[in-house]
TrEMBL record:
GO terms for biological process: carbohydrate metabolic process. Keywords: Glycosidase, Hydrolase, Signal. It comes from Galleria mellonella (Greater wax moth). The keyword Hydrolase applies. Belongs to the glycosyl hydrolase 1 family. This is Myrosinase 1-like.
Length: 502
């Protein structure tokens, strides 16, 4: 019963907060700014011009009650028709690059590369050309969760053949877009794909084969990424001269107290959350992290499994994966407190990812809360992530590929402005302390379909009017602030946009 006391201590320690000085701080030369979106969340056109179905089309149509407001991405922000306006917005903001994702089933309706949907190729060609015409670099994400349903019928990310299917798809993208696209992410957020999609019901395909499917998926995602990377590295890089990497979601887990147990719980949580994917790629040793291998092997043995539920990586697989990313794409939003409590055994399904991790994860109610329940503003946690990546992985080039804040709506978004300023402020601290952070990407350009939360959470720098067929886009106050940061390449905490009026 000492928990509440310990947690209060933590609240006290971390509550004196981040005080932004009024100092104007400059970003390093060459630092680039962008904004990010993903195909299913904004495009709509779900059944147009030969597009195949994705697992999100199936999830939203077969059981609408799984989505908070029973909505779908059928139309979303209608970017399939309004992409020129999206590029105009990117131009208004002065973005250096725009990170978007390609819908695999829009290009390959059945998932396989024997049948290419030309209308899909045309759509992305138009988008890419429009960006380049406006001097904005296209940053292409190959996979942001909308798997072709035809491949899910075959098991999706738990079928090892998906490694080949993904590489075939990557080849189609390099062949069609690589002459103009020089920035690539293979896979966006493996944890959300594997744990949330296969080891629980939080994301499509909501497989919920807990404690088993998420680890098979992790191995296949890592190998699919690595093989797509090597295909580019060995066959395309010489001609196309691009940069290619992976984006991993990184939450900071802070020990809830100074005990050895709580420290170990925080380390375990970080290794399950992002080390699981980062360690095999970015560490010197390669392979899954020790904490992951140890915890899952121990639990599996206790539970009577003949071998660990975490698949092994062979020596040649370890080699293939290690070093297979030109940059560490960090998607980071928030921080959690972590502790170990033996008496809470039994609170998670057995077997499961959470039970294997054996850490209890809580939020600190004193931290500013976004519209999304999982999202609180904790800039010092973001700072610790950047320092930890520098330390663990020998200071790789880091691109922040997502960071952002949700509200319930409205154009006057003071808390989003405060969030971005505080996060960019500690990002500058990290750079001064030696972290090799080179790009920052706001999530997101425009309001979108926020997965199981539908349209109830607004992350956009621009508001989208989902109630009108026109889907008008209007800049929020934060858009003017971000625009000024990009224009001046400085962080000025006192800047107020003159032109902004609601
Ligand atoms: C997911 O599976 C676990 C068993 O591993 C079960 O306890 C839980 O109720 C399932 N969740 C849903 C939403 O079906
Ligand atoms: C390749 O790209 C780099 C920047 O990423 C540039 O400096 C270099 O000139 C390019 N080389 C060729 C051959 O295009």
């Amino acid at each position: 019963m000492i928990r509440p006391f310990l947690i209060l201590c933590v609240i006290f320690l971390h509550c004196n907060g981040e005080f932004l000085s009024n100092k104007i701080r400059k970003f390093p030369d060459g630092f680039q700014f962008g904004a990010s979106t993903s195909a299913y969340q904004i495009e709509g056109g779900w059944y147009e011009d030969g597009k195949g179905l994705s697992i999100w089309d199936i999830a939203t149509h077969t059981d609408p009650s799984q989505i908070k407001d029973k909505s779908t991405g059928d139309v979303a922000a209608d970017s399939y028709h309004l992409y020129k306006r999206d590029v105009e917005i990117a131009k208004e903001l002065g973005l250096d690059f725009y990170r978007f994702s390609v819908s695999w089933p829009r290009i390959l309706p059945k998932g396989f590369s024997e049948q290419i949907n030309q209308a899909g190729i045309d759509y992305y060609n138009n988008l890419i050309d429009e960006l380049l015409k406006n001097n904005i670099k296209p940053f292409l994400t190959m996979y942001h969760w909308d798997l072709p349903y035809e491949l899910q019928k075959l098991g999706g990310w738990v079928n090892p053949y998906i490694i080949d299917w993904f590489v075939d798809y990557a080849k189609v993208l390099y062949d069609n877009f690589g002459d103009r696209v020089k920035l690539w992410t293979t896979i966006n957020e493996p944890k959300q794909i594997c744990y949330e999609g296969y080891g629980s019901t939080l994301k499509a395909p909501m497989l919920n084969v807990t404690g088993v499917a998420e680890y098979i998926c992790a191995k296949n995602v890592l190998l699919a990424h690595a093989k797509a990377y090597h295909l580019y590295d060995e066959h395309y890089r010489k001609i196309q001269n691009g940069t290619i990497g992976i984006s991993i979601s990184c939450t900071w887990f802070e020990p809830a107290s100074d005990t050895v147990d709580d420290h170990q719980a925080a380390i375990d949580a970080r290794q399950f959350d992002w080390g699981q994917y980062a360690h095999p790629i970015f560490s010197k040793a390669g392979d899954f992290p020790l904490e992951l291998k140890r915890n899952i092997a121990l639990k599996s043995a206790e539970q009577g499994y003949p071998r660990s539920r975490l698949p092994e990586l062979s020596a040649s697989e370890i080699c293939l994966i290690r070093g297979s990313s030109d940059f560490f794409g960090v998607n980071s939003y928030t921080t959690k407190l972590t502790y170990r409590d033996a008496s809470l055994e039994g609170m998670y399904a057995v077997p499961s990812y959470m039970d294997d991790m054996a850490a209890v994860i809580i939020s600190n109610p004193a931290w500013p809360q976004a519209q999304s329940t999982w999202l609180q503003e904790v800039p010092w946690g973001f700072h610790k992530i950047l320092k930890e990546i520098m330390k663990l992985y020998d200071n790789p080039p880091v691109y922040i590929t997502e960071n952002g804040w949700s509200t319930s709506g409205g154009l006057l978004d003071e808390d989003r402005i405060r969030y971005y300023r505080n996060y960019l402020n500690v990002l500058l601290d990290a750079i001064e302390e030696g972290c090799d952070v080179r790009k920052f990407t706001a999530w997101t350009l425009i309001d979108n379909f926020e997965w199981k939360n539908g349209y109830t959470e607004k992350f956009g720098l621009y508001e989208v009017d989902f109630s009108s067929e026109k889907h008008n886009r209007t800049p929020r106050k934060s858009a003017y602030i971000y625009k000024e940061i990009i224009r001046t390449r400085t962080l000025d905490p006192t800047y107020e946009p003159e032109k902004f009026s609601v």
